[in-house]
């Protein structure tokens, strides 16, 4: 009897590891998959298009024959489309704050024109035409945003530059006639501020919309004419400035490296 009991215990001890091995084989432990978190960190390049405009403010001082003085201020509505590209870099911190630097360049037809015909003393008539435009503009801006995974709202601001052009002509018909004009262009520096939102469609492609207010400062001008070709001549000196400020709204895409 004792021999039978000892043989039973020994058989049970030998079969326990095999049973444990069978259980491990039948019920494996599955690994938990880790979902990668999107990050805005990296360089990017892209393109955009948009629409802009506001008012060009034309301030002019007119001196006749050295002693007669007049001053006028005119607001010229401006508008136009633009298209361009941008390049930049973002860094996303552990707390989801995103800090970036971006520069862009836009080719545009934003312009405004003003025309006036009016009568002067003794039935003499005069015309005045003015036009101002922005041929291109660009910005160098910092961006500060907060990432909600693939959605990034941000504020932005920095320096702005652009090529502005001016064309003014005036005519006078009376005892005689006279025409005089001034035109020219220059590259101006100013500032810009705005805000936008950007969304990551894939890990590499993003879509954004952005508003910017651009102030390129003022462009000074002056020109000289002699009126009127009859028995009395007047030396006319015109001088003034044109303020170039406009709003922009654009949409664009970026490729993130």
What is this structure, in a nutshell?
This protein has 257 residues and is mainly β.
List keywords for this structure.
membrane, eight-stranded antiparallel barrel, Porin family protein, mainly beta, elongated, OMP-like, cell outer membrane, 257 residues
List the helices and strands and how they pair.
Blueprint: H1 2-26, E1 42-64, E2 68-92, E3 97-119, E4 125-146, E5 151-173, E6 177-200, E7 205-227, E8 234-256
Antiparallel strand pairs: 1-2, 1-8, 2-3, 3-4, 4-5, 5-6, 6-7, 7-8
Question: Care to describe what's here?
Answer:
The protein has one helix and eight strands. With 257 residues, it is mainly beta. It has one domain (44-256). It has an eight-stranded antiparallel barrel. The protein is elongated. The protein starts with a helix and ends with a strand. The mean pLDDT is 81. It holds the Pfam family OMP_b-brl. This is Porin family protein.
């Amino acid at each position: 009897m004792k021999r039978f009991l000892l043989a039973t215990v020994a058989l049970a001890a030998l079969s326990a590891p095999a049973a444990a091995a069978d259980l491990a084989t039948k019920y494996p432990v599955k690994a938990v998959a880790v979902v990668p978190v999107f990050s805005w960190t990296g360089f990017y390049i892209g393109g955009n298009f948009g629409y802009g405009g506001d008012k060009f403010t034309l301030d002019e001082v007119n001196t006749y024959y050295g002693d007669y003085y007049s001053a006028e201020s005119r607001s010229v509505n401006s508008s136009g489309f633009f298209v361009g590209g941008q390049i930049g870099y973002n860094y996303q911190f552990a707390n989801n704050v995103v800090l970036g630097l971006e520069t862009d360049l836009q080719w545009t037809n934003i312009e405004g024109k003003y025309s006036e015909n009016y009568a002067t003393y003794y039935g003499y008539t005069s015309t005045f035409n003015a036009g101002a435009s922005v041929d291109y503009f660009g910005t160098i801006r910092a961006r500060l945003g907060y990432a909600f995974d693939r959605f990034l709202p941000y504020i932005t601001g920095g320096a702005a530059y652009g090529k502005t052009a001016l064309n003014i002509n005036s005519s006078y018909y009376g005892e005689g006639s006279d025409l005089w004009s001034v035109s020219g262009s220059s590259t101006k520096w100013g500032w810009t501020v705005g805000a936008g939102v950007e969304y990551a469609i894939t890990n590499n492609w993003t879509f954004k919309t952005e508003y910017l207010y651009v102030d390129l400062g003022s462009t000074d001008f002056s020109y000289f004419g002699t009126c009127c070709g009859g028995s009395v001549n007047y030396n006319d000196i015109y001088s003034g400035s044109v303020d170039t400020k406009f709003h922009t709204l654009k949409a664009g895409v970026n490729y993130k490296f």
